[in-house]
From TrEMBL:
Residues covered by region (Disordered): 94-113
Domain N-acetyltransferase: 13-173
Identification of the protein by name: Acetyltransferase
UniProt cross-references to Gene3D superfamilies, sorted A to Z: 3.40.630.30
Key words of the record: Transferase
Single Gene Ontology MF annotation: acyltransferase activity, transferring groups other than amino-acyl groups
One Pfam family this sequence matches: Acetyltransf_3
InterPro entries membership: Acyl_CoA_acyltransferase (IPR016181), GNAT_dom (IPR000182)
């Protein structure tokens, strides 16, 4: 599996999620919850404990890399995000793949993911509409494209979540379409999911735009 990694920025630090984060993560989630109607955010200590346990189990299985988001100026945890759906493509023999194929489907530091998703993202009310999300995405996209050499990063959200869709589009992600009747919705029922992506060729322009936005924050 991928080893936990810390991603440091000017405004935030993305720390590997651990069981020691229960209290602070619970406190962040307990601020005004009115914006969480379309987002699964743990409510209370017991839910937060299960949330962390589930994320760490998925990490041990190689499918996610979960973080908590800490603001540098206040030293407070203000949310959570993660890499998920990490996948290593099995490639045919080529000059770009001297061994003839990738080393396995579970990504490791020596065999990083070919594609990834950024998701399960939520922020405390006090961190919303600040520069937090821009820097988090810049840090994570840079790690995916510059360190892992990932070829695509996916972002998705409940199709009804106009606020989230606007934020994703502002990153420079391209809308791919809506997968209908996709998964259970956080507010009950079944949700349609809007899919977006950024591919490697688009990353330099996206990085420059995010950097400029970060400088203005």
């Amino acid at each position: 599996m991928l080893k936990p990694v810390t991603l440091r920025g000017h405004l935030v630090c993305l720390e590997p999620m651990t069981v020691d984060h229960v209290h602070e993560l619970c406190a962040a989630a307990s601020e005004d919850r009115s914006t969480y109607i379309y987002t699964k955010v743990p409510n209370g200590r017991e839910e937060t404990e299960r949330y962390i346990e589930s994320a760490l189990k998925s990490h041990s299985e190689g499918s996610v890399l979960p973080f908590v988001v800490r603001r540098n100026d206040t030293d407070r945890i203000v949310g959570s995000t993660r890499f998920l759906d990490l996948e290593v493509f099995q490639l045919p023999p080529s000059s770009a793949s001297p061994s003839g194929a990738s080393k396995g489907t579970i990504p490791t530091d020596d065999n990083p993911p070919t594609v990834a998703e950024i998701g399960n993202t939520w922020y405390a009310a006090s961190a919303q509409r600040t520069g937090v999300n821009t820097e988090c995405k810049l840090l994570m996209l840079a790690h995916a494209f510059d360190v892992w050499q990932t070829i695509r990063v996916t972002l998705k959200t409940d199709a009804r979540n106009d606020r989230s869709r606007t934020a994703i589009q502002r990153l420079g992600a391209i809308f791919e379409g809506v997968r209908r009747a996709h998964i259970p919705a956080s507010d009950g029922g079944i949700r349609d999911t809007a899919y977006y992506s950024i591919v490697a060729d688009e990353w330099p322009e996206v990085r420059n735009d995010l950097f400029q936005r970060q400088q203005r924050s």
